[in-house]
Amino acid sequence: MIVIPQKQLDSFLQGKKIILQFFAALFLLLSFFLSSVFATENTVYIKGLGAVLREQPSIQSKKTFKLSRGTKVLSIESKGIWQKVESGVSQGWLLRGQISKFPVKRKTLILAQKIQLLSASGRRVRLRTFSAVVGVKGLVDSEGKKISPYKTDYTALEWLEQLPSNEENSVIFLSFTE
Amino acid sequence: MAHFNKYLWLHIFIFSFGFAVSGQAQEFRLRAHHIFWKNQEAGTDREIDFGRGVAAKILGKYPLLRDERKHKYISQIGTGITAQLGRPELRYYFGILETDEINAFAVPGGYIFVTMGALKLMRNEAQLAGVLAHELAHVGQKHIVRKLKLQSTDSSLTSGIAQVLGSSTLASKIALERLNDLAFKMLMEEGLSKEDEEDADQKALEMLITLGYDPHSYLNYLQSLKPHLAQGGAEVLSKTHPTIEFRYRSLKEFISRHQLDNIQGKKNEKRFKKIMAKS
């Protein structure tokens, strides 16, 4: 370990305090901002279910590794619509649409689905939001005039919203080739 | 203490060096980034509220085809795409509109509609996936929200909607209704910008390639629209979109720029025709 004598250190710092303070402050700022800017530019997240890494930037290239949704990866290189990423020990190419600059958020449910989840019986609870009421009566202003000239159909919308949907099964369904 | 003050700046210097080298600054910035995005979740709720209103107006204009088999098929194709390439925070809905008009619509919050007229014109699953991918790109890029300039001071789009629609007062409900009308009018009359449509076409092509579909099928679908546009079978589409010539040329240029000419993919013609043939 190198030990700098106190006297030598004092004499070195004498008269250089202001300069040292300035550079320390500058260095602190730069070290924070620069490193963080580079960090967010290089850090990306896997958006979808099961993104497959390929050896080369080509759809015919060999598949090497599968990454799950939300995995934080480092973006290393881009080539046209392809992006090279690194995750732990594995590296490979993805199509740029498979990654996002932002962390993956959990699914946002509409009110009816939230109510259904909370409902002890599990049966569907009719949506009683402002929009459902408007769907039947139409929104009127203080003079009783309709705000919107357009018709709405919330019953049809609810029919559509209650149809089941499963991401994993749909991905399997989509992967089918004749 | 005096000794500490004397060397305070030296300590800061050493600490900042260590901070930068150890990667703590990076972690700190990322954590701040996460907190910021967590706050945007409220914005997504508002985007869906907004989108529901517009979707209800589309269903007020065109009846929804209540054919569970066809819906299941469209929904599986659409959800298969969004599960891999959509916004993970959204649950997407795919509806078929019972009209011979040829068109497809994307509404903020994840509501996608395709008309029976468009489905009748399609020849295979790759074309359907292409049309859905084009609409999904509009939702992914928040084109409608951007065009309505629902951008708040912190430059986040969804929090802009949250600011307008954040309360449950009558005034905010009226504001929501007016915004819904503006978005509906945009979809039916004014359309998005030429650049947004070009962007959605290119993203659709990239999605098809990612999913292993034949990207050229989408170009063939665009070509097949031409005679119908001339005959007035897609009045809304021709009012709201750039010309087919422009879209086709732009995609061809995109294909040659990224050397995608030789990419082949599946078309799944039989599966598509089997589902569409049954009533």
Descriptive notes:
The complex is a heterodimer of chains A (178) and B (279). With 178 residues, chain A is of the alpha+beta class. Helix content of chain A is 38%, strand content 20%. Chain A contains 6 helices and 7 strands. Chain A has helices at residues 6-13, 17-42, 111-118, 130-137, 154-161, 167-175, and strands at residues 43-46, 51-54, 63-67, 72-79, 82-87, 90-95, 99-100. The longest helix of chain A is centred in the first third of the chain and has 26 residues, at 17-42. Chain A is flat. The N and C termini of chain A lie far apart (70 Å). Mean pLDDT of chain A is 77; it is low at 120-133. With 279 residues, chain B is mainly alpha-helical. Chain B has 15 helices and 3 strands. In chain B, helix 5 crosses helix 7, helix 7 crosses helix 11 (194-211) and helix 11 packs across helix 14 (244-257). The longest helix of chain B is centred in the first third of the chain and has 21 residues, at 41-61. The chains are: A alpha+beta (178), B mainly alpha (279). Chains A and B meet through helix 2, helix 4, helix 5 and helix 6 of A and helix 2, helix 3, helix 4, helix 5 and helix 10 of B.
Low-confidence residue ranges of chain A: 120-133
With helices defined by DSSP (H or I, 4 residues minimum), what is the helix count of chain A? 6
| Percentage of residues in helical conformation of chain B | 55-70%
Residue-averaged pLDDT of chain A, rounded? 77
Q: Give the overall shape of chain B.
A: globular
Q: Major β-sheet of chain A, in short?
A: 5 strands, antiparallel
Average pLDDT value of chain B? 84
Number of strands of chain A: 7
Keywords for this structure?
A: 178 residues, alpha+beta, 7 strands, 38% helix, 20% strand, flat, B: mainly alpha, 70% helix
